[in-house]
Amino acid sequence: MKRIICLFCALLLLPLTACGAERDPEPSQLSTMPPVSAAPESRQPLPTPSPAPAFYHPLTGLPCEEDLAGRRPVAIMLNNLKAALPQQGNSQADIIYELVAEGGITRMLAVYQDPSQLGLVGSVRSARQYYWEIAQGHEAVFIHAGGSPEFYETKNSKGLFTVDGVNGYYSSRDAGMFWRNRDRVAGHHYDFEHSLLTSGEAVADMLAQRELEEHSAGYAYEMTFADDGTPVGGSSAKTVTVPFSGYKTGVFRYDQAQKRYLVEEYDEPYIDGNDGSQVAVTNLIILQTTYVVLDNEGRVKVGLESGSGWFACGGKMIPIKWEKGGADRQFRYFREDGASLALGRGKSYVCVIPTSRSVTAE
Question: What predicted TM-score, i.e. pTM, was given to this entire model?
Answer without folding.
Answer: 0.85
